[in-house]
From TrEMBL:
Keywords: ATP-binding, DNA replication, DNA-binding, Nucleotide-binding. Gene3D superfamilies: P-loop containing nucleotide triphosphate hydrolases. Belongs to the MCM family. The keyword DNA-binding applies. This is MCM C-terminal AAA(+) ATPase domain-containing protein.
């Protein structure tokens, strides 16, 4: 965006955010048209979550009160995390250093079948899944197993990866009519 030229490594974790071109998301346009990012750049992301700021009276009030409490002199509520920060850091460090899950035969079968299902959703003119999508499903499945410190990827990890892909990227970037 804004004329930035970049190259992305295949195994790099990227978290990006983009605002709509005219500062207001137009639901009549595609995500690509709203964000004005080239399609080839959009396909580089494993998951794309479309987060719209919709008006909702109760949610807006709750958000306003939360933000005001951060700046007011009144008593501030501290939310205690379920896992303390140091334990979480050590957990992530351990997983990065010692956990390298492999894909089980059952998971490989589900990956193959899921990829073929995604690929065959389109028409002859429009391909809905490319090998890059399969690689995304593999990475997401491995990540799910790694989070649970497992040595192998299960079929349930693949099913969750497919669900995430459909809920995020496909809902945001694929035009159901074409």
């Amino acid at each position: 965006k804004a004329g930035i030229v970049c190259s992305l490594n295949a195994r790099t974790a990227i978290l990006a955010s983009a605002n709509p071109a005219d500062s207001c998301y137009n639901p009549k346009l595609s995500v690509v048209e709203n964000i004005k990012l080239p399609k080839n750049l959009m396909t580089r992301f494993d998951l794309i979550w479309l987060m719209l700021d919709k008006r909702h009276r109760d949610n807006d009030h709750r958000l306003a009160m939360h933000l005001l409490s951060m700046y007011s002199e009144g008593e501030k509520k501290q939310v205690e995390p379920e896992v303390d920060a140091e334990t979480f850091r050590r957990y992530v460090s351990f997983a990065r250093q010692w956990v390298f899950p492999t894909i089980s035969d059952e998971a490989a079968e589900v990956l193959s079948a899921s990829y073929m299902d995604l690929r065959n959703q389109g028409s002859r003119e429009v391909i809905t899944a490319t090998p890059r999508i399969l690689e995304s499903l593999i990475r997401i499945s491995e990540s799910l197993a790694k989070m649970e410190l497992r040595e192998s990827v299960l079929a349930s990890d693949v099913n969750e990866a497919v669900r995430l892909l459909k809920a995020a990227t496909y809902a945001a970037a694929v035009d159901p009519e074409t």
